[in-house]
Amino acid sequence: MTVEREEPGGPAGRPRHGRPEWLRGARITEVQGVFYRPEGRAGEPEAVEFVIPDGQSVLLTCASDGTLRVTPGAWPELPAWCVPANQWQHAAVMNLPPVPYGGAWTVIGTRERRDEKGEVREAVIRCEDGDFVVAGGDTMAVRFDRH
Question: What is the pTM of this model?
Answer without folding.
Answer: 0.82
